[in-house]
Amino acid sequence: MLTPLKWAFVWGLALAAIPERESMANGHPSYSPQSIMARLGVPSAQARQRFADAGMRDVHAHDLTRTERAAVEQAIAALPVLHRQVLAERLHSLSFVDGIPGEGTGLTSRSGTSDSYDITLRASLIHESLSDFLTTKEQRVFDGAARGTVAVRGEGVSALTYVLLHESTHVVDATLGLTRDLGAPLVSGVWTARTDPVARLASEPALKTSFRGAPPLPGSDSIGVYRSLSRTPFVSLYSTASSSEDLAELVSWYVVERQFRGSLTIAVRTQDGRLLEAFEPLRFPGVRARFPSVEALLARRFVPDAGAG
Ligand SMILES: [Zn+2]
What we know:
By secondary structure, the protein is α+β, with helices and mostly antiparallel strands. It has eleven helices and twelve strands. A hairpin with a 5-residue loop joins strand 11 and strand 12.
């Protein structure tokens, strides 16, 4: 879900539709899931060429089945009003592809030099459970034999809904300039630059994983890493990658918990399956302390002409 520069290409097709202004909420327009579904498209020939240039020769557009379209519409409907408003104004295209190698999942990229965005997602996500998706991602932190000892259980939403929440939070962030402001409530006290945490956090083992460029860790480090995470304001190890990933993770999990009564548990087990320790990041004091700021953010409304509402 990091956005590699090599993927930040320009889509060739103009897929944007005029947003359909459905109703007024708090004096601002709010948008139906259907107005965002209208941006569903296929990656252009030019985009496919960019994938090929990046060595991903088999990436191609995925034709959504009726059931898959319904799942996508449901995931869009699950987004907060702020997210749907911003997407309705700024989403250029939403597309699904097959053939992404490895564990790639999704990316959000600026559409050329415009202020609109393309979201591209791996189509097989639609059929994945949230727990499987999260466990696969988390296991990258640990080396071979240790991988089976860490498992993540995520409940409340589908993997697709979670990924769309995460990626669309990047669009909200970029549109409202949230993490660009180092004094913003969800940035200040945590980050001193996009990828630089404050000194107190920089020394924590939770900030020395592969999500910040370190090599994979032995399994014996896992409990120490998650105990360290519990002392931080981060809801996941992936949050430590940058201020924008932190925001996307925090907002997504806040919505999963508040709106869908969901939960997040990381279990560390022995090789033979005995539970050693379980962690619930949504209960970490440092994470909960940030929830009022997330709530305040989600209460904002986007006024296209004036920027942030
Ligand atoms: Zn991300």
